[in-house]
Write a structure and sequence with these properties.
Oligomer: single chain
CATH class of the largest domain: Alpha Beta
Shape: globular
Number of strands: 17
CATH topology of the largest domain: Molybdenum Cofactor Biosythetic Enzyme, Chain A
Number of domains: 3
Largest sheet: 6 strands, mixed
Strand order of the largest sheet: 2-1-3-8-7-6
Radius of gyration: 26 Å
């Protein structure tokens, strides 16, 4: 057991990470989960599929940290050298793990339905000096090593497989190995106000925070997530303290707060709709179905989302949604009049309580002097009223779509709250 702060290092292995072919999302996720346990991520290191570089990274990071998490290099191909390297590093020899072998066979029989090659069977080989972490989501097992009071965990680079091992095995076991402080997080989500304006509003609150409680600003696409984090020895005591401060923070941001939980905007909308037993539909032009995708990414969304119409072309707006030809001719597809008719038609066609519609110019071309790139009209209609708003975004095409989706969802959230019909 270690009474000092427990540090962790994350080593990601793969040439594809170094050249940018694959984006490393594993490190960010692992760091967040370790932080929840009270383990401080001191370093994150990426190395290629080179024996000496991986070996040196293990040496260096074991000087810095008590927990060393490694992802990547566990596949069946020749460049996947992590397993034999770990065997050599810890002085073991390769053996076949029967549990891992059975897992590989079952995956091929149930899902792949093709004969296994010798290279696939080698997936079941592990160093005899490790504790095997069975892979419930793939063929490559994970490996847990201990040396001089430190823990080394090697896992696949496939995010879904790594997360399964971390959640089921690694994260529950680490608190048994080390004396960790109590860590308490409280998170709220705001929308429609920038980070600097929030900081100015709560500057006195932030300045008065005790040293063991930190406030983090996590901005993203028109929203800012605020997270209070408290650490201490007495969990009950710090829970009471951070809860009191969290209530104070909510009071100061009540008008811009979306939800006082660590949830996304689309999750918050789902909670609202489910609570009120209301339904929603969409009519999208410039976002091409992205808003529907966000809504349906939430488990249980089938209970409140009826469907969406992607009316990218004006003929679909006219022939499917019934937008008046005169409206399109006189005001254009990107107009208050058009999105209002789109929203009301979607609500009528799909028989929902609410509907939202968007139409805009995402770029890089298509803009005019009157309606430059980034011009977007959004309409939300409900039992009480139809609300419209014009936005002017200033980013590239993909980010314009993402920002538009957030603006539309936030307008929907406000309409759900305000609608009493």
């Amino acid at each position: 057991m270690n009474n000092d702060r427990v540090n962790a290092s994350i080593i990601t292995i793969g040439d594809e990470l170094l050249i940018g072919q694959t984006i490393d999302t594993n490190s960010a996720w692992m760091a967040q989960e370790l932080n929840k346990l009270g383990i401080w991520v001191k370093r994150r290191v990426a190395v290629g599929d080179v024996w000496d570089e991986i070996w040196n990274a293990l040496d260096e990071e074991s000087k810095q940290s008590q927990v060393i998490l490694i992802t990547g290099g566990l596949g069946p191909t020749a460049d996947d050298i992590t397993k034999p390297l770990m065997g050599s590093y810890f002085g073991g020899k390769m053996i076949v793990d029967e549990g891992a072998l059975q897992n590989v066979k079952e995956i091929f029989e149930k899902y792949i339905k093709r004969p296994m090659l010798d290279v696939n069977l080698k997936q079941a080989e592990v160093p005899d000096v490790c504790t095997v972490i069975q892979n419930k989501r793939g063929t490559a097992p994970g490996m847990w090593f201990e040396k001089e009071g430190k823990v080394f965990v090697s896992m696949p680079g496939v995010p879904n497989e790594m997360k399964g091992m971390m959640t089921d095995y690694v994260l529950p076991r680490l608190p048994k190995m080390f004396a960790l402080p109590a860590v308490v997080h409280r998170t709220l989500l705001t929308a429609g106000i920038g980070e600097s304006y929030i900081a100015d509003r709560i500057k006195d609150f932030e300045a008065a925070l005790p040293q063991h409680i930190k406030l983090a600003y996590l901005p993203n696409f028109g929203m800012v997530r605020l997270r209070l984090t408290a650490t201490g020895k007495d969990e009950t005591e710090i829970i009471e303290e951070v809860d009191r401060l969290f209530i104070e923070l909510q009071d100061q941001l009540q008008d811009v707060m979306v939800i006082n939980e660590d949830k996304t905007l689309e999750e918050a909308i789902g909670i609202l709709l489910a609570k009120k037993e209301k339904t929603v539909s969409t009519a999208e032009s410039c976002t091409g179905g992205y808003i529907s995708h966000l809504i349906t990414s939430v488990p249980g969304s089938s209970g409140y989302f009826k469907g969406g119409i992607v009316s990218y072309d004006n003929t679909i707006k006219e022939n499917v949604l019934g937008v008046d030809a005169d409206t399109l001719d006189n005001y254009g597809a990107v107009s208050e009049e058009t999105v209002s008719q789109m929203a009301m038609a979607a609500r009528s066609i799909m028989k929902t309580d609410f509907a939202l519609a968007v139409s805009g110019i995402m770029g890089p071309g298509g803009g005019t002097e009157e309606k430059p790139v980034g011009t977007v009209w959004i309409a939300v209609t409900g039992n009480k009223e139809t609300v419209t708003r014009k936005f002017q975004t200033r980013y590239n095409r993909n980010r314009n779509i993402e920002v538009t989706a957030i603006n539309a969802l936030n307008m929907l959230r406000q309409s759900i709250i305000n609608d009493e019909g």
